[in-house]
Amino acid sequence: MLADSLDATANDIAGGMAEFVSSVVAVPRVLADGSFTPKSEAPYTAKIREHVEHRTRGHERLVREVGSWLQAQGATVTTPHPIDLKITDPIEVIIEAKTVGTRDPLYAVREALGQVHEYRYFIGPYDAALAILLEAVPPDELVRYAEEYHEVALLWWDAGSLSAGSRGALLLGAAASSRLDPPH
Question: What domains lie within the chain, and their CATH numbers?
Fold first, then answer.
């Protein structure tokens, strides 16, 4: 199910962002016998469509609202650029906030996974826990994917309430987790 979504996402990206023109006949990536079939190395031309993006300040609102909520729970929260939110006490947690809007939450989680790992590696601390914050309720399978496979907590802000998967609830601590909505 999630694999199909990832495959569809990759196809959307490839089809929606660029039109590839190549003089090379495409080779199937996987043959029926599963043999190794690398893609062509031949040069190609990509036509990138120009477009205008309209942006809102929803990301900044999400960071402000959740940061204030965490402070009200007794956490010490900072916003050291480029990290969106960082809990420094009682535990250290690096949080990347993502707005979802009309797109699949998988896009946001995919982007954020790389960011939180880079922040921990390049900025630190190395032992900080990692979390992704969404402004939309994610599907259960996406929560499991982030928390169980990647070991990154998934949090979401919904109607003024912070919810989390099981890893996220543990990270937020006993005082905050008693006020969290039950894991989705």
Answer: 58-177 (3.40.1350)
